[in-house]
Amino acid sequence: MIVCGEKLERGEKKAFSMPIKGGMPLLGMAVCGEKEGKTLLITAGVHGCEYVGIQAMRRLTEQIQPKGLCGQVIILPLVNRSGFLAGAKQLVPEDGKNLNRVFPGKEDGTLSERIAWAIEAQLYPLADFLLDLHGADINEQIVPLAFFPTAAGEEVCSLSRAAASSLSLTMRVCSTSKNGLYSWAAQRGIPGLLVERGGLGRWSEEEVNQCLENVYELMGFLQMLPEQPTKSEQREIVRAVYEQAKADGFWYPAIKEGQIVQKGQLLGRLESVDSDEVWEYRAEFDGVVMYYTLSLGVHREDPLVAYGSERAE
Ligand SMILES: [Zn+2]
Q1: CB contact set of 203 (below 8 Å; sequence gap of 6+)
Q2: Residue 267 pLDDT grade (very low, low, confident, very high; cuts 50, 70, 90)
Q3: Residue 100 C-alpha to ligand 1 middle, in angstroms?
Q4: Is the pTM of this model over 0.70?
Protein backbone atom coordinates (compact mmCIF):
# COMPACT_ATOMS: atom_id res chain seq x y z
CA MET A 1 0.00 0.00 0.00
CA ILE A 2 1.22 3.52 -0.76
CA VAL A 3 -0.38 6.29 1.32
CA CYS A 4 0.55 9.85 0.34
CA GLY A 5 3.94 8.68 -0.92
CA GLU A 6 4.70 6.38 2.06
CA LYS A 7 5.17 2.79 0.94
CA LEU A 8 4.08 0.14 3.44
CA GLU A 9 4.84 -3.57 3.27
CA ARG A 10 2.85 -6.23 5.12
CA GLY A 11 3.40 -5.90 8.88
CA GLU A 12 4.39 -2.23 8.77
CA LYS A 13 2.96 0.85 10.51
CA LYS A 14 3.98 4.32 9.31
CA ALA A 15 3.01 7.92 9.90
CA PHE A 16 2.15 9.87 6.76
CA SER A 17 1.61 13.49 5.84
CA MET A 18 -1.06 14.48 3.35
CA PRO A 19 -0.24 17.72 1.54
CA ILE A 20 -2.96 20.36 1.29
CA LYS A 21 -2.43 22.95 -1.42
CA GLY A 22 -1.74 26.30 0.26
CA GLY A 23 -2.36 24.89 3.73
CA MET A 24 -0.83 22.83 6.53
CA PRO A 25 -0.45 19.13 5.69
CA LEU A 26 -2.75 16.69 7.50
CA LEU A 27 -0.95 14.07 9.58
CA GLY A 28 -2.12 10.49 9.72
CA MET A 29 -1.16 6.90 10.49
CA ALA A 30 -1.28 3.92 8.16
CA VAL A 31 -1.09 0.28 9.19
CA CYS A 32 -0.59 -2.63 6.85
CA GLY A 33 -1.74 -5.82 8.59
CA GLU A 34 0.12 -9.12 8.58
CA LYS A 35 -2.54 -10.65 6.38
CA GLU A 36 -4.55 -9.56 3.37
CA GLY A 37 -7.90 -7.89 3.79
CA LYS A 38 -9.92 -4.75 3.28
CA THR A 39 -8.76 -1.17 3.72
CA LEU A 40 -10.61 0.92 6.27
CA LEU A 41 -10.21 4.71 6.16
CA ILE A 42 -11.13 6.48 9.41
CA THR A 43 -11.44 10.25 9.65
CA ALA A 44 -12.20 12.46 12.66
CA GLY A 45 -12.27 16.15 13.45
CA VAL A 46 -14.04 17.33 10.29
CA HIS A 47 -15.84 19.48 12.85
CA GLY A 48 -13.13 20.70 15.20
CA CYS A 49 -15.08 20.66 18.48
CA GLU A 50 -16.45 17.12 18.22
CA TYR A 51 -13.82 15.73 20.53
CA VAL A 52 -14.70 12.10 21.26
CA GLY A 53 -13.75 10.81 17.80
CA ILE A 54 -10.61 12.96 17.65
CA GLN A 55 -9.34 11.66 20.98
CA ALA A 56 -10.36 8.08 20.15
CA MET A 57 -8.33 8.24 16.92
CA ARG A 58 -5.30 9.56 18.81
CA ARG A 59 -5.67 6.49 21.01
CA LEU A 60 -6.18 4.12 18.06
CA THR A 61 -3.11 5.55 16.35
CA GLU A 62 -1.05 4.37 19.35
CA GLN A 63 -2.89 1.08 19.94
CA ILE A 64 -3.26 -0.43 16.51
CA GLN A 65 -0.60 -2.86 15.36
CA PRO A 66 -0.10 -4.91 12.19
CA LYS A 67 0.03 -8.15 14.23
CA GLY A 68 -3.25 -10.02 13.96
CA LEU A 69 -4.73 -7.48 11.54
CA CYS A 70 -6.12 -8.58 8.17
CA GLY A 71 -6.04 -5.64 5.79
CA GLN A 72 -5.09 -2.00 6.12
CA VAL A 73 -6.18 0.88 8.33
CA ILE A 74 -5.62 4.53 7.44
CA ILE A 75 -6.34 7.03 10.22
CA LEU A 76 -6.71 10.78 9.77
CA PRO A 77 -7.45 11.96 13.32
CA LEU A 78 -7.76 15.70 12.77
CA VAL A 79 -9.12 16.79 9.40
CA ASN A 80 -10.02 20.36 10.41
CA ARG A 81 -6.86 21.37 12.27
CA SER A 82 -7.52 25.11 12.37
CA GLY A 83 -11.13 24.69 13.51
CA PHE A 84 -9.96 22.40 16.30
CA LEU A 85 -7.27 24.82 17.50
CA ALA A 86 -9.61 27.82 17.30
CA GLY A 87 -12.47 26.02 19.06
CA ALA A 88 -14.62 26.93 16.05
CA LYS A 89 -18.11 25.44 15.90
CA GLN A 90 -18.78 23.49 12.65
CA LEU A 91 -16.58 25.62 10.39
CA VAL A 92 -13.12 25.89 8.92
CA PRO A 93 -12.13 29.37 10.17
CA GLU A 94 -10.14 30.34 7.06
CA ASP A 95 -13.18 30.32 4.77
CA GLY A 96 -16.16 30.02 7.14
CA LYS A 97 -17.36 26.85 5.41
CA ASN A 98 -18.68 23.60 6.82
CA LEU A 99 -16.21 21.03 5.49
CA ASN A 100 -18.91 18.37 5.60
CA ARG A 101 -20.96 20.28 2.99
CA VAL A 102 -18.30 21.02 0.37
CA PHE A 103 -17.72 17.58 -1.17
CA PRO A 104 -16.74 17.14 -3.94
CA GLY A 105 -14.01 19.68 -3.27
CA LYS A 106 -12.01 21.85 -5.66
CA GLU A 107 -8.30 21.70 -6.34
CA ASP A 108 -8.06 25.51 -6.40
CA GLY A 109 -10.98 26.36 -4.13
CA THR A 110 -11.03 27.71 -0.59
CA LEU A 111 -9.25 25.78 2.18
CA SER A 112 -12.29 23.59 2.99
CA GLU A 113 -12.68 22.74 -0.69
CA ARG A 114 -8.97 21.98 -1.07
CA ILE A 115 -9.03 19.66 1.98
CA ALA A 116 -12.07 17.88 0.52
CA TRP A 117 -10.35 17.61 -2.84
CA ALA A 118 -7.15 16.17 -1.28
CA ILE A 119 -9.09 13.54 0.68
CA GLU A 120 -11.00 12.48 -2.40
CA ALA A 121 -7.92 12.43 -4.66
CA GLN A 122 -5.47 10.83 -2.24
CA LEU A 123 -7.43 8.65 0.19
CA TYR A 124 -10.73 7.62 -1.43
CA PRO A 125 -8.94 5.47 -4.04
CA LEU A 126 -7.36 3.37 -1.26
CA ALA A 127 -10.51 2.76 0.79
CA ASP A 128 -12.89 -0.21 0.77
CA PHE A 129 -14.88 1.31 3.63
CA LEU A 130 -14.97 4.76 5.21
CA LEU A 131 -15.79 5.68 8.81
CA ASP A 132 -16.17 9.39 9.63
CA LEU A 133 -16.37 10.17 13.36
CA HIS A 134 -18.46 13.07 14.59
CA GLY A 135 -20.39 14.16 17.64
CA ALA A 136 -22.87 16.84 18.53
CA ASP A 137 -21.33 20.31 18.43
CA ILE A 138 -20.42 22.50 21.43
CA ASN A 139 -24.04 23.66 21.78
CA GLU A 140 -25.75 20.34 21.01
CA GLN A 141 -26.38 16.95 22.58
CA ILE A 142 -27.04 13.69 20.74
CA VAL A 143 -27.90 10.04 21.21
CA PRO A 144 -24.89 8.02 19.96
CA LEU A 145 -25.91 6.87 16.49
CA ALA A 146 -24.77 6.00 12.97
CA PHE A 147 -25.92 7.63 9.76
CA PHE A 148 -25.75 5.38 6.71
CA PRO A 149 -26.28 6.28 3.03
CA THR A 150 -29.56 5.41 1.33
CA ALA A 151 -29.11 7.59 -1.78
CA ALA A 152 -26.16 5.77 -3.35
CA GLY A 153 -25.64 2.50 -5.25
CA GLU A 154 -27.64 -0.43 -3.90
CA GLU A 155 -24.61 -2.49 -2.87
CA VAL A 156 -23.01 0.50 -1.13
CA CYS A 157 -26.23 1.20 0.80
CA SER A 158 -26.87 -2.38 1.88
CA LEU A 159 -23.27 -2.98 3.00
CA SER A 160 -23.26 0.32 4.91
CA ARG A 161 -26.55 -0.57 6.58
CA ALA A 162 -25.26 -3.99 7.60
CA ALA A 163 -22.11 -2.35 9.01
CA ALA A 164 -24.19 0.09 11.06
CA SER A 165 -26.20 -2.84 12.41
CA SER A 166 -23.00 -4.49 13.66
CA LEU A 167 -22.17 -1.59 16.01
CA SER A 168 -23.18 -1.21 19.65
CA LEU A 169 -25.42 1.81 19.05
CA THR A 170 -29.12 2.15 19.80
CA MET A 171 -29.94 3.89 16.51
CA ARG A 172 -29.00 3.82 12.86
CA VAL A 173 -30.40 6.58 10.69
CA CYS A 174 -31.10 6.54 6.94
CA SER A 175 -29.39 9.50 5.28
CA THR A 176 -29.89 11.01 1.83
CA SER A 177 -26.99 13.44 2.19
CA LYS A 178 -24.50 13.52 -0.71
CA ASN A 179 -22.03 16.36 -0.08
CA GLY A 180 -20.18 15.20 3.04
CA LEU A 181 -16.94 13.29 3.51
CA TYR A 182 -18.58 9.86 3.84
CA SER A 183 -21.72 10.61 1.80
CA TRP A 184 -19.77 11.78 -1.24
CA ALA A 185 -17.58 8.68 -0.89
CA ALA A 186 -20.81 6.64 -1.08
CA GLN A 187 -21.61 8.46 -4.33
CA ARG A 188 -18.19 7.33 -5.57
CA GLY A 189 -18.94 3.70 -4.72
CA ILE A 190 -17.31 3.46 -1.27
CA PRO A 191 -19.57 2.22 1.53
CA GLY A 192 -19.30 4.05 4.82
CA LEU A 193 -20.80 5.43 7.99
CA LEU A 194 -20.89 8.65 9.94
CA VAL A 195 -20.91 7.81 13.65
CA GLU A 196 -21.87 10.46 16.21
CA ARG A 197 -20.99 10.34 19.90
CA GLY A 198 -20.60 13.04 22.55
CA GLY A 199 -21.47 16.73 22.55
CA LEU A 200 -21.34 20.07 24.34
CA GLY A 201 -17.62 20.44 23.64
CA ARG A 202 -16.80 17.64 26.09
CA TRP A 203 -15.25 14.21 25.98
CA SER A 204 -14.80 11.47 28.57
CA GLU A 205 -12.71 8.30 28.82
CA GLU A 206 -15.94 6.32 28.77
CA GLU A 207 -17.08 7.88 25.49
CA VAL A 208 -13.63 7.46 23.94
CA ASN A 209 -13.67 3.77 24.91
CA GLN A 210 -17.17 3.32 23.48
CA CYS A 211 -16.05 4.99 20.25
CA LEU A 212 -13.04 2.66 20.05
CA GLU A 213 -15.33 -0.29 20.69
CA ASN A 214 -17.42 0.74 17.67
CA VAL A 215 -14.26 0.94 15.55
CA TYR A 216 -13.17 -2.56 16.60
CA GLU A 217 -16.70 -3.85 15.96
CA LEU A 218 -16.55 -2.39 12.47
CA MET A 219 -13.17 -4.04 11.86
CA GLY A 220 -14.77 -7.29 12.98
CA PHE A 221 -17.64 -6.78 10.53
CA LEU A 222 -15.11 -6.14 7.75
CA GLN A 223 -13.24 -9.36 8.67
CA MET A 224 -10.12 -7.41 9.58
CA LEU A 225 -10.21 -8.58 13.21
CA PRO A 226 -12.22 -11.35 14.93
CA GLU A 227 -15.93 -10.54 14.80
CA GLN A 228 -17.58 -9.23 17.99
CA PRO A 229 -21.18 -9.58 19.05
CA THR A 230 -23.05 -6.27 19.20
CA LYS A 231 -24.17 -5.26 22.69
CA SER A 232 -27.27 -3.23 21.96
CA GLU A 233 -30.67 -3.48 20.40
CA GLN A 234 -30.77 -1.11 17.47
CA ARG A 235 -33.65 0.70 15.87
CA GLU A 236 -33.60 2.01 12.31
CA ILE A 237 -34.78 5.56 11.82
CA VAL A 238 -36.29 5.70 8.34
CA ARG A 239 -38.04 9.07 8.57
CA ALA A 240 -36.57 12.15 10.22
CA VAL A 241 -37.25 15.85 10.60
CA TYR A 242 -34.37 18.31 11.02
CA GLU A 243 -35.91 21.52 12.37
CA GLN A 244 -34.04 24.79 11.79
CA ALA A 245 -34.45 28.25 13.31
CA LYS A 246 -36.86 30.38 11.27
CA ALA A 247 -35.10 33.57 12.40
CA ASP A 248 -32.34 34.83 14.69
CA GLY A 249 -33.74 34.19 18.12
CA PHE A 250 -33.87 32.89 21.66
CA TRP A 251 -34.34 29.11 21.72
CA TYR A 252 -36.18 27.31 24.53
CA PRO A 253 -36.05 23.53 23.94
CA ALA A 254 -38.72 21.42 25.65
CA ILE A 255 -37.13 17.99 25.04
CA LYS A 256 -33.89 16.08 25.59
CA GLU A 257 -31.90 13.73 23.37
CA GLY A 258 -33.35 10.22 23.36
CA GLN A 259 -36.78 11.41 24.52
CA ILE A 260 -39.85 9.75 23.01
CA VAL A 261 -42.22 12.37 21.60
CA GLN A 262 -45.80 12.16 20.41
CA LYS A 263 -47.40 13.80 17.42
CA GLY A 264 -48.24 17.40 18.30
CA GLN A 265 -45.92 17.50 21.33
CA LEU A 266 -44.03 20.76 21.88
CA LEU A 267 -40.34 20.38 20.99
CA GLY A 268 -39.33 23.95 21.74
CA ARG A 269 -40.12 27.62 21.30
CA LEU A 270 -38.20 30.23 19.37
CA GLU A 271 -38.62 33.93 20.15
CA SER A 272 -37.35 36.42 17.63
CA VAL A 273 -34.50 38.72 18.64
CA ASP A 274 -35.84 41.45 16.37
CA SER A 275 -39.63 41.32 16.78
CA ASP A 276 -42.47 39.94 18.89
CA GLU A 277 -42.75 36.87 16.72
CA VAL A 278 -42.77 33.47 18.45
CA TRP A 279 -42.58 30.05 16.79
CA GLU A 280 -43.61 26.79 18.38
CA TYR A 281 -42.00 23.63 17.04
CA ARG A 282 -44.18 20.55 17.43
CA ALA A 283 -43.60 16.92 16.47
CA GLU A 284 -45.21 16.03 13.14
CA PHE A 285 -45.37 12.36 14.13
CA ASP A 286 -44.62 10.01 17.03
CA GLY A 287 -40.87 9.55 17.26
CA VAL A 288 -37.65 9.87 19.20
CA VAL A 289 -35.33 12.88 19.58
CA MET A 290 -31.93 12.20 18.02
CA TYR A 291 -30.24 15.50 18.92
CA TYR A 292 -31.03 19.05 19.89
CA THR A 293 -29.45 22.45 20.39
CA LEU A 294 -29.02 23.80 23.91
CA SER A 295 -27.72 27.30 23.23
CA LEU A 296 -30.07 30.18 24.06
CA GLY A 297 -29.01 32.19 21.03
CA VAL A 298 -29.42 30.77 17.54
CA HIS A 299 -28.98 32.15 14.05
CA ARG A 300 -31.59 31.79 11.35
CA GLU A 301 -31.25 28.29 9.78
CA ASP A 302 -29.26 26.90 12.73
CA PRO A 303 -30.29 23.35 13.62
CA LEU A 304 -32.70 23.22 16.60
CA VAL A 305 -33.86 19.65 16.97
CA ALA A 306 -33.82 16.42 14.96
CA TYR A 307 -36.25 13.59 15.60
CA GLY A 308 -37.17 10.47 13.72
CA SER A 309 -39.31 7.39 13.52
CA GLU A 310 -38.96 3.73 12.59
CA ARG A 311 -42.09 4.07 10.52
CA ALA A 312 -42.04 5.54 7.02
CA GLU A 313 -45.61 6.89 7.23
ZN1 LIG B 1 -19.95 16.86 12.93
Answers
A1: 51, 52, 54, 55
A2: very high
A3: 8
A4: yes
